[in-house]
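Contributing new records

If you add data, match the layout below exactly. Sequence lines come first and carry their own label; structure lines follow with theirs. Keep one chain per record. Anything else will be rejected by the validation script.
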Amino acid sequence: MLIFWQNYISLIILCPILIRAVSNQIRNLKPEHLCQEEGNFCIKPKEIFLLYDVNPVEGFNLRRDVYIRIANLVKKINNERIEFRFKLVLPPWHNLYHWKSKQVQQSMLDWKNFFDINSLNEYIPVIELSDIINETNGTLILDQIYFLENDFENFNNEPFDKFLLQDNCDQTIYFKEREFIRGNFWGYGHKIRAKKCQKIKFRGTNFYLGDNLIKILRQQNLKFLMIDKAEAVIHQDYGQSEYWKCRKSMKFSHILVDKGLDLVKSLNTDEKKKIGGNYLAVHLRRGDFLKHRPSVSIEQICKQIKMVLDQVNLERVFIATDGTESEIRDVKNLLMNFDVIKYNPTEKDLQDYKDGGISIIDQIVCSYAEFFIGTRESTFSLRIQEEREILGFDSSTTFNCFCNDQKICETNKWLLKI
């Protein structure tokens, strides 16, 4: 009798452990492995295609950050839920505000123009919107659009998280035509329509949004789901392990990497250098960016560049900037004793790489420099700093910016965590 009770107690203790272990194994399986044959114990998750979009005025580099927020959400759901399997539909790059080369076709661009899709798929399942449209015979009908609205009403008098579903999408970019919701949809408005659109008064993180989506999916039969104004969603774990795992998967397309590294090679004069080149790289964010932030004069910037060049014993500086021709001339005149280089794309380069690719090439060259100075609060500079962290450069050569001081300043350090 004693042996019976010992075995019974052991079973009670081990049973939850075994269930958790099996559940974790199931979560790590791909959808095609979850259901090998029909039967009572067959677990076949429902595939959900998640689309998202961002405010049209937002730039290329902030959009890359929004991708990480949504990708982290998808990763968490796929890891923790066995009843659903999310696939993220990549929103095309469509005539972004900062893309000024009007002679170049820059609408409805797939992600493969700029990023390695195989690498993205190593973190979460992704698919180009153009591919999903082809798979649905040229017409995509979304089951639901959720249009997020930042809500700061009663911000100090209620919990931070807020998810308040509204009746419709009145006074948004979407409109009703017969029984469907229509919109531009990245230039695919003639091929995409939606059954329903609702606003959400939203305040919260990507994981909080994910939890609410799961609640909705348990109540409604949805397959194609879209989140608009996704920039309203904030990171749950910014700069932590999952952030960096996703960020590392965002490798640039091979054609852009090859072009960028060719430029790095042309700038480098030290054959013994194991990585990068013996030059200083700087990012000067000018233009509309200066309207809302304290600016540093070109004269002060050049003084700080000279100081760094002397400190690190370099004679060559690569400049990535959206500054005017006049500002670039001023920089070259003030640094006339140094070798100042800027990548000036040919017309063929512009046609081949687009404005987005040109900016990535600039970022690649800055990422491989011996020392980098950026612009405070610029997401362009931040993406370079992240690349340098991934490449393994010392943080002291990376997290620097121009400032209204005698010398450069340090920026916040978001160090690699994997």
